[in-house]
Amino acid sequence: LLASSAASDVYKEEVLVRVYDLNGKLLTVHNYGHCDSGTLALPVAGLQPGNYLLQIVRDQQVDTAKLIVK
To answer: Is residue 9 a contact partner of residue 3, using CB atoms and an 8 Å limit?
Structure first.
């Protein structure tokens, strides 16, 4: 999975992505450190097909997104 954002939103910020199942169980955490490119590659090979929630933490901002693995 590749996720991108406007480069001005991600330059010099540390990015942490947590993957949860729909029951709220934390499945994996990916620490990307400083994201200078504006693009993240999230490995999904270990996830079963289904729906997941992504929690994306950048500095003090937390965003949540839905992830569908087919």
So the answer is: no
Hey, how many other C-beta atoms are within 10 angstroms of the C-beta on 10? Answer: 21
Give the model confidence (pLDDT) of 12-65 as tens digits: 678 899 999 999 999 999 988 877 667 788 888 889 999 999 999 987 889 999
Helix intervals (H) in 1-70: 7-10
**CA–CA separation, 67 and 12 (whole Å):** 25
d(CA 6, CA 28): 25
Query: What single-letter amino acid sits at 26?
Result: L
Phi, psi dihedral angles at 39 (to 5 degrees): -130, 135
C-alpha pair distances (Å), 5 with each of 10, 31, 37, 70:
7, 17, 9, 23
